[in-house]
Design goal:
mainly alpha, 4% strand
């Protein structure tokens, strides 16, 4: 049963309501932030706080942390980022599974796709709730540029594919590949694992 209630612009931690930046730009930046291995955990936390909260709300956050509620605060932030949904437990992503999109690398494709399908200019809109943006992003039709590119990135090489089709898909995947966010050590480990599995 749906409620169609007003979308939240705050999170609640142990009875304390804290305003949060609900604009899609903040959560899109947060998603990029948590996937960036070049930043330390301390840098991620500091940048996340800057994205989501104002200097006026910092004392509330500090009080919660001092009271031992840092984990509850982080879970509330994740609840907001996940649009009020529980984490998906039925699917565990492989570290070699390709990312379908990046808000940073695909910014222009996403902009053009929203413009085409919804006649919405993401650069001009002063505020768009993250939950609305997420629903609209998930519903972009297969005719849009970002949906087409995401399909190429996640397409698998099937057993019955011809050599010509395999080569075409390989070229398309290279053309639309996202930047490799792994560290040198992670790349070395992944290569070693792939090398070992080849025998």
């Amino acid at each position: 049963m749906t409620s169609w209630q007003t979308l939240p612009e705050s999170i609640t931690v142990d009875g304390t309501e804290i305003p949060i930046n609900a604009d899609f730009r903040a959560s899109a930046a947060f998603e990029e932030l948590i996937q960036d291995p070049t930043r330390t955990d301390e840098q991620r936390v500091a940048e996340m706080l800057e994205l989501y909260f104002t200097s006026q709300t910092m004392p509330m956050l500090q009080t919660l942390v001092l009271e031992g509620k840092a984990q509850a605060l982080f879970e509330a932030i994740l609840w907001f980022y996940r649009c009020g949904k529980a984490p998906k437990e039925d699917h565990v992503a492989s570290k070699n599974e390709p990312r379908p999109y990046s808000f940073a690398a695909d910014e222009q494709r996403i902009y053009a796709s929203f413009r085409e399908q919804y006649a919405l200019d993401l650069y001009d809109v002063p505020f768009l709730h993250w939950w609305k943006f997420s629903s609209m992003f998930a519903a972009l039709g297969e005719h849009t540029e970002i949906a087409r590119v995401m399909h190429i990135r996640t397409a698998k090489f099937e057993n019955g594919m011809s050599a010509k089709d395999r080569a075409a898909l390989r070229r398309a995947k290279r053309a639309y590949a996202l930047p490799d966010l792994r560290t040198d050590a992670q790349r070395d480990d992944d290569f070693a694992a792939a090398f070992a599995s080849a025998f």
